[in-house]
Amino acid sequence: MLALERIQPWMLLRDSRCGTLLRVLRVGPLLAGSIAVDGQDQLGNPAEITLSRSDEAHLQPLDDAPRLKRDPAAVLGCLLGGAVGDALGAPVEFLHWAGIERQFGTRGIVDFVPAYGQLGAITDDTQMMLFTDEGLLRASRRLGEPAGNASKGCGGVMRVAPCAFFPNPFDKAADSARLTHGHPTGYLAAGLFADILARLWNGEDSLAAATQASLAAHGGRPGMEETRRLVGHVLALHAEDMRPTPRRIEQLGGGWVAEEALAIGLWCALSADSLEEGVIRAVNHGGDSDSTGLIAGHFLGLLHGHEAIPARWLDQLELRDAIERIALDISLVPASYRNDGSEASRAIWERYPGW
């Protein structure tokens, strides 16, 4: 058994931006593993969830299986880029810029420092992104009752990058976010994020062009007003070659709500010459640093590939093996699964059972 790190549920429950969780905590084993819950109070007191998966041989694509036209390596770059942005921002998520500057100097945080007891620790942002990814790969059933709330926290937008690599990315992402974030801004910003990523993956010339095309396609939807206004403002800043600084970022907001997190991550990605530069900018402000770092990392990882991620970050990244495995499966599973009883199809079913 390959044990994944032990995840504290309070990381998922510590603030309101995550929205309302379903009453059924067991949402399915990550990578066909198992979940064990210890502790008494799932909604208040810290408890531990242990995730594990069978040490199966890596799936190999069938020689004659159809291939997706898009580059699977771009998916890997997108997911890993988001994860390193999350991990870099985790230690400073609740610090104001003055505190970040005092502790780390005028450049802010540029390397991993311990968070949650270890170097390279991811947060609820990457955890929920991985569970969203798994849900897209599995034909899952609904458990419990759908959540109903008016939240527009960034917990919807921060988890939906995998939707970009499946058909109808805007609708998939918006529907996923709407389960926990009922405010139109909360789920429509998520749809826009996935749609921009999808346009990049499908060959749009630049991040700015992909964003403009996505706004043209979806910006007129009812409820999109807040997101359209802030994303449009970021495009205007980029056109004027206005680069983000900690204080300029805070003029957009803290990133605790969906449209702000998307706009901050987008601006830092638009202005960056490298993934490292963009992610560092995205986490060094007095707001939701891990979420904005994750969003910038998703954009820049997709644009530049996983090779652009500094080795010093990748080497310490929590759950790197799980992220790499699930990124590969995004391209492999739709192309290879045939339900024909073959060894490859059985292995896929065991990894992502359809029940």
From TrEMBL:
The entry's family comment says: Belongs to the ADP-ribosylglycohydrolase family.
Q: Name the Gene Ontology molecular function terms of this record.
A: hydrolase activity; metal ion binding
Q: Report the protein name in the record.
A: ADP-ribosylglycohydrolase
Q: Does the keyword Chloroplast apply?
A: no
Lineage of producing organism? Bacteria, Pseudomonadati, Pseudomonadota, Gammaproteobacteria, Pseudomonadales
Q: Which InterPro entries match?
A: ADP-ribosylglycohydrolase, Ribosyl_crysJ1, Ribosyl_crysJ1_sf
Q: Which Pfam families match?
A: ADP_ribosyl_GH
Cofactors named for this entry? Mg(2+)
Task: Report the cofactor remark.
Answer: Binds 2 magnesium ions per subunit.
Gene3D superfamilies documented for this protein: ADP-ribosylation/Crystallin J1
Where is coiled-coil annotated?
none
Q: Which residues bind Mg(2+)?
A: 288, 290-291
Q: Which UniProt keywords apply?
A: Hydrolase, Magnesium, Metal-binding
